[in-house]
Amino acid sequence: MSLHPSLQSYADAWTHSVEAISELVQPLAEGEWSWATPCPGWSVRDVVSHVIGIDCEMLGDPRPIHTLPRDLYHVQTESQRYMEMQVDVRRHHTAPEMTSELEYTIIRRARQLRNESRAPGAKVRGPLGSEETLEESMRRRAFDIWVHEQDLRTSLRKPGNLDSPGALVARDVMLFWLPKVVAKRAGAPANSAVVFDVHGPVDFLRTVRIDADGRGTIDGAPSLGPAVTLALDWEIFYKLACGRVKPAAVEDRIKVEGDQVLAQAIIDNFVITP
């Protein structure tokens, strides 16, 4: 047996992004590894450490035994503490140590994916000791690594891959969470609709519909009388959803039609990442 067809797109997306990351960081000078990225609190080294650490966990490697410093301002939740462990343990690694560990991890993980024969519904280890399906795990990994590729591209001023296989996985993940953003967090009224018109390297039009009970669903059909229409660029859409920009910094790049108060509530509650 080999990788299940429904998992192939996630494997391809991971491969595309992780190889791009390797290419981006291979020539970096020691000082460039300390440059800040849009991921709060993390440098280039920290992002790459996270990439290495999570793929090592997916390989089944034990988590490091390590005590976090008390002064990490960006670590506020148990989930953030969990993610920070793999990062902080590598904070003093040199550039050659980072690139060699990244390359070795990519080789091991690629081999694991080539030999993967489990069904998409097979249970695997998730964050914080949780369980999730293999499909959920691989989807989340493809999404996560594409976002961190973009973090590195922003920091290193090397834009690209906004329409890569990882970008399409990220789009689907973010669209999955949109009904919760609109219905629950922003409090859109019952029997209303909100339209997202996204243009750029990845373009789409989606309508979030709120039923009489306040539940949200999403589809690709236009709405004749939406409460709000938000038109924005794909790059702004993903950066808002992933907490890479503050709403106030990009409001002038979002065209709003309809209920201004509801639109602001949606923009202010757009973040879906931990």
From TrEMBL:
It holds the Pfam family MDMPI_N. The keyword Isomerase applies. Residues 15-153 form the Mycothiol-dependent maleylpyruvate isomerase metal-binding domain. Transmembrane segments: none annotated. InterPro entries: DinB/YfiT-like, Maleyloyr_isom, MDMPI_C-term_domain, MDMPI_metal-binding, SCP2_sterol-bd_dom_sf. Keywords: Isomerase, Pyruvate. It comes from Streptomyces mesophilus. The keyword Isomerase applies. Residues 169-264 form the MDMPI C-terminal domain. GO terms for molecular function: isomerase activity; metal ion binding. This is Maleylpyruvate isomerase family mycothiol-dependent enzyme.
